[in-house]
Every structure is written in C-alpha cells, then in structure tokens.
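User: My collaborator sent over this chain with a note saying "see what the structure looks like." That's all I know about it. Can you take a look?
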Amino acid sequence: MMRPKSAPPLTGAAASQHIDATIAALGDWRGETLARLRALIRQADPQVEEEVKWGRTPVWSHGGIITTGETYKEVVKLTFLKGASLPDPAGLFNSSLDGAARRAIDVRKGDPIDEAAFIALIRSAVALNTAGKAKG
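Assistant: Without extra context I'll predict from the sequence alone. Here is the result:
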C-alpha cells in the first residue's frame, strides 16, 4: 500500500486506514511500537487528526502538526516540529537535538516508553499549537 512521494495528502478515515495498513505491513516490533505510540497520542488528545503527508508519512495534528511517525530499519522516529519549544522534563527527546525548532524521539527495539511523560509531551504540543488560536 505504498503511495508515491508525489501523492496528495490523506486525511480523515483514508489517513487512518493508511496508518493501519502501514502498521500491519511492518509486522514486527516497529509496527507494534508505532501502534503503541499512536494509541498514546490518541489517549493524550482524543481530538487529534490523523493525516498522511509527503507520500507516506503518518502525521498527527491539532491546530498544526504535533508529530510525524516514521519507521526505519533500526528505529521508530517521532519528530515534533516545535519540539525545541516544548518542556521535556523526562528527557524523551534523544534525536535532532541541535535543530532550531524540531526535536525527535528515536525508539529502538526493546526501548521502554515513559507513557505518562509521552502523554504530557503530546498535550504540551497541542497546547503550544492552539495557544492564542481560541477566540472566546
């Protein structure tokens, strides 16, 4: 179910189905890890929107992109576009640490995931994305 790089973005049910298929196609620890992180993202923000951009990359958004989820041979990478602006008291960010805006979490096979800290990070990203956007 690979889509060409030039494919238009997917949103809504089509994006969720593509992410389901991506996880199933991996069939190993990377699929399990991506599925677990996806569940935590949805738990942290039930209003999160799933998208597929840049041909095949899962993206989670709320008021802007929160994080992308990419899988490589040795790592599942979650890149937070505004990660440099987020508090990370648990030290989850372990990649792209020198970027001006982005930060990433690389999860390798067998790595533990601090679920409470990850949920807090997702909620902080949503708060940053939506700050000043809500007009009452």
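A starting point for your reply to your collaborator: The chain has a mean pLDDT of 92.
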